[in-house]
């Protein structure tokens, strides 16, 4: 692998741009495929296979021109956006990082959203609607609101519910959630949009302590992502 | 390793060390002028612990980041990585219970795995 190829992979991963590295296993000859184009040195069949693998998020081999090629699909990491730098956010963020999520905490109250409380995690102290608009949640993003403050939670949900985020969840009791749904209805959100919210967020495991609640939330996110039986 | 369930597909969350960290470390070593080799799982059968795309990087001092198995084939992979750093040639390694080759080390989990080892960089 050329140094330039390594640099291009790292750039694409940082920019959340899907990129496939196609390698002839007999001698290591290599080319790159993205949705915008492919190196002309690559056989057509490998380019088609790489495009499919970028969509399916799956690396593997393909035979072309009598040779075996390995297609390494570099797809963007999953992200978890946590709204509210509250006490539950601290264990949740740690667990999400362990599970491989790029994790971002949003809280405009700068006393909460300090780098010291969230080491190694991106902390954004903008208002949630503004922060969410710039993060642009995609189909590999989970959004979880934790503040209990309608001004903050609803601002984030307003963006999340009209994004392709694969998971939207909100902390709060059943009563809090019913009030939230009522507010969102008044704001013009449709029933199907509101139904996307996992609320109260987290699997029903009887969680009490902050870390237990965080475990319940992460378990639900994983279950939705992997199509597990316990998704709701 | 349990063989009751199919392994999950490769992605960041199933990797012991995230891909970004493996590749970023490889790049840091290269920028420091070190020879580096990259090992990548290209195919698995059975209950191999690491999925296609899992990577390991190693430098000339045999510092390692990432993994291509539960640890059972790393030694053999690193030996071939040293050879790749020296001659610049990519090599495809195969490990598994059905493999009778001399450097066969076996996978405790009963799986089979193919690993591509390549040098990083245009010169040693």
Q: Describe it for me?
A:
The complex is a heterodimer of chains A (232) and B (124). By secondary structure, chain A is α/β, with parallel strands linked by helices. Chain A folds into two domains: 3-74, no CATH class; 79-226, 3-Layer(aba) Sandwich (Rossmann fold). Chain A has helices at 3-14, 44-56, 89-98, 128-135, 150-160, 174-186, 191-194, 210-226, and strands at 19-24, 30-34, 37-38, 60-64, 67-74, 79-83, 102-106, 122-124, 141-145, 167-170, 197-198. In chain A, the strands form two sheets. Chain A has a six-stranded parallel sheet, sandwiched between helices. Chain A has a five-stranded antiparallel sheet with strand order 3-2-1-5-4, sandwiched between helices. Chain A is elongated and about 65 Å long. Chain B has one domain (13-120). Chain B has a five-stranded antiparallel sheet, sandwiched between helices. The termini of chain B are far apart.
In short:
The complex is a heterodimer of chains A (232) and B (124). By secondary structure, chain A is an alpha/beta fold.
């Amino acid at each position: 692998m050329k140094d330039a190829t390594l640099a291009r992979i790292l750039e694409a991963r940082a920019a959340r741009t899907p990129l496939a590295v196609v390698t002839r296993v007999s001698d290591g000859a290599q080319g790159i495929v993205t949705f915008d184009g492919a190196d002309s040195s690559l056989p057509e069949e490998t380019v088609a296979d790489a495009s499919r693998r970028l969509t399916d998020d799956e690396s593997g081999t393909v035979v072309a021109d009598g040779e075996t090629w390995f297609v390494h699909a570099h797809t963007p990491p999953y992200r978890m956006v946590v709204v509210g730098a509250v006490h539950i956010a601290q264990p949740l963020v740690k667990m999400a990082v362990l599970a491989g999520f790029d994790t971002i905490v949003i809280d405009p109250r700068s006393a909460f959203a300090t780098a010291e409380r969230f080491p190694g995690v991106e902390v954004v102290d903008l208002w949630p609607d503004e922060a969410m608009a710039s993060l642009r949640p995609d189909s590999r993003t989970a959004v979880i609101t934790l503040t209990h403050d309608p001004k903050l939670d609803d601002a984030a949900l307003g963006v999340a519910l009209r994004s392709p985020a694969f998971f939207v969840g909100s902390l709060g009791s059943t009563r809090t959630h019913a009030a939230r749904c009522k507010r969102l209805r008044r704001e013009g959100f449709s029933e199907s949009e509101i139904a996307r919210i996992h609320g109260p967020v987290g699997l029903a495991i009887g969680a009490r302590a902050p870390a237990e609640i965080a475990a319940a939330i992460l378990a639900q996110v994983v279950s939705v992502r992997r199509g597990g039986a316990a998704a709701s | 390793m349990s063989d009751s369930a199919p392994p999950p597909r490769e992605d960041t969350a199933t990797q012991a060390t995230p891909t970004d960290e493996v590749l970023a470390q490889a790049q840091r070593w290269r920028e420091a002028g070190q020879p580096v080799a990259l090992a990548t799982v290209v195919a698995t059968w059975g209950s191999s612990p690491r999925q296609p795309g899992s990577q390991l990087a190693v430098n000339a001092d045999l510092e390692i980041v990432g993994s291509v198995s539960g640890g059972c084939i790393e030694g053999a992979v690193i030996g071939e990585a040293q050879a790749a750093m020296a001659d610049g040639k990519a090599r495809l390694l195969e490990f598994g219970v059905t493999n009778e080759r001399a450097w066969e080390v076996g996978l405790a989990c009963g799986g089979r795995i193919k690993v591509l080892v390549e040098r990083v960089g245009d010169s040693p």
